[in-house]
Design brief:
The protein is mostly helical. The protein has 29 helices and no strands. Helix content is 59%, strand content 0%. Helix 8 runs antiparallel to helix 9, helix 13 crosses helix 14 (258-271) and helix 16 (295-308) packs antiparallel against helix 17 (312-324). The radius of gyration is 26 Å and the shape is globular.
Length: 518
Amino acid sequence: MTPEELEAALNLKPSDDIPPAARRALTRIGVLDEGEGGLPYWHLGRQDPVLVRTALAANRGRLVSRWGHILLRRALASRLDAPAGMDPAEFAALRAGLLVRMGEGEAARALVQDIDTANFGPLLTSAALDSYVATGDFTGICPAVQLQGAGSRDKPWQVLGAICDAFAGEGSRGLASLDRLTYYGAMPRVDMLLAQKYAGAAGKGRRAVTIEWNEVKDMTPWRYAMTTAIGLQPPAELLRQAGDGYAFMAATAPALGLEARASAADRAAASGILSSAALVDLYAQIYDNGDASSEAGRRAARLRDAYAAATASERVAAITALWADEADPALRFGRQVLTAYAAARVPAAASLADEAAPLIAAMLAAGLDRNAVRWTGVVPVGSEAWALLALGTAEAGAVSGGAVDDFHAQDNSAELRKSRFLVAGLAGLGRLPLSTAQDLAGKYGFVLDRPSRWTRAIDRAAEYRNTTLVALLAGLGMQGTGWERMTARNLYHIVAALNRVGLTAEARMIAAEAVARA
């Protein structure tokens, strides 16, 4: 009698093979406890599930702010109770789905792994599959395939089932199933060839498989993850036409080489996926092991000069050279993240004041506000460096309208966006009286505050000190591919709400980032 027949004869449910003491409750689901920096688990328990569902499902995952991304990831990964009336599995699925859209496949996979597979529903099973695909882990999903996808007529599930058979020691059976599914066109031919090559790596059932890209017109997450998992590189032309999501996958893909990861790391860092320390570690490995004549090798050598050059001016020259390599504003900001700790080592000197603003922006990109504050008193009032310090440092106090006018007089950003964000950020932090901020907004030609359903929701959440809901709604309000998609009104409400619920450090970093990147 097979295990399946035995289970049917005993009328066992999938969870019955798990001892009661080992089963995990569907409460406080997540990987980041409050004592580890997570948000309070009870904050969503009494919230309207429709509002929470909308905040998660309506967020497409691309945020204009690096610090907004970091905050939203922290909220989604926290151990949280589901809102009353919402299925905990659905709540976990919505969180995991948003993490995948953000490019945070590892965090999404860790979240779904916090739930017993027997408790997966269709929505969570789909989110789990997306998270495993995003990390190139096609065998990690096997328990869900066996429990939730067994007998499914959905062709991708059948393909996964065959792969899982191969890695469970049934290589011949798995490859035979893939041959049959290929014959019937279960998935596009290239996907089936990739699946055969992946499954063929298990056991004695190996076979020669040639991947044919000639007829392939686009890239998909499955296709990209499967290609990198078997140690190949997708065609460069397909990747050029694909979105940033593939760069996010590449930046953290363990199967890719250092050079390939480095080419994607800047964009991942600018978005908030990689930290400054992670970037430095990556380039340190390239410096030790890579080709000094390669593009990544040259950047690694220049980064070493940014830390170890003999004089401050030489270190600044190396830092600015790394920034100048990229014309794309997002990639340039990624280089600022890379050089954050090198910038923190530069002495605050009047002779370097011309480079103070980007150096301070680099420090604040990694949260090094205590290093940035050393420039206070060195840079002139009304300069961009002054504005970043006024927003980003804890020591900064109240700001006068005259100082903001001085900044506005020198502002050459598109639509005076830096001035608008400065007024909004200072008002949200309480460093500029709201009446003064509104007067300045009228003078500069924009509206600081105009009620909407979103502003009322985030203001009310802040009024009740609901940190978790404020973080989710802030993420909803920061969607976009660039800071030109952000309004001063939204920035004001986000900064004010975060400041009110105690996330003042995050509020300062987001406000300063807005001015630096506008």
